[in-house]
Design brief:
Blueprint (H helix, E strand, L loop, with lengths): L7 E11 L2 E9 L1 H7 L5 E7 L2 E9 L5 E4 L2 H7 L6 E8 L9 H9 L1 H9 L2 H12 L4 H17 L3 H11 L2
Helix pairs in contact: 3-4, 3-6, 4-6, 5-6
Length: about 170
């Protein structure tokens, strides 16, 4: 990465519909900030909307604009809504680093087979599965999800494993 990696970026944006579908809302990252970053591709960032933390990727629109997709859950938790002015601050983050919930780390530490399979997943797939475990508030539910994830991974029953198997069969 470039020397801009440690720089903090800051702008005021607004939440607006993306992809011409009202259920997808995002914040467009200004062109001058993207030029300062000087990197291409999907970029992982950590930052805040009005001081509420987020961990997202800067993505592409067909128009050439770059944006942060803001889920309904993130909108609710950060108390932001369509059209409002939002202070956005972020740093580039290492796309290979995945923050794991404690419950999932504990399960993987105790199950060598599940951990080996986990390590074979891309960081993006790991991030998605970690989000699944961490998306419930109750600790017992997170433990249950982590155990379920490990069991399904070992039997090849995870959706992403089935998807990979099916894509291998396509000529």
């Amino acid at each position: 990465m470039s020397k801009t990696k440690s720089a903090e970026y800051h702008f005021i944006g607004s939440l607006r519909p993306l992809h011409n579908i009202s259920s997808y809302l995002g914040i467009v990252v200004p062109v001058d900030i993207m030029e300062k970053i000087g990197l291409k591709g999907r970029l992982r960032v950590k930052g805040s909307f009005n001081d509420h933390p987020f961990d997202l990727a800067i993505q592409h629109l067909k128009t050439g604009e770059r944006y942060l997709m803001v889920s309904a859950a993130l909108r609710r938790s950060s108390n932001i809504s369509e059209g409002m002015s939002i202070e956005v601050k972020f740093l580039l983050s290492d796309p290979t680093v995945v923050d794991l919930p404690e419950e999932l780390m504990a399960v993987l530490a105790q199950d060598d087979d599940a951990n080996k399979i986990w390590e074979s997943f891309t960081p993006g797939r790991q991030r998605s599965l970690a989000h699944y475990v961490n998306s419930v508030k109750n600790i017992d539910s997170r433990i249950k999800r982590a155990l379920e994830l490990a069991a399904k991974a070992k039997t090849g029953e995870l959706f992403i494993q089935k998807k990979l198997k099916n894509s291998d069969k396509i000529p």
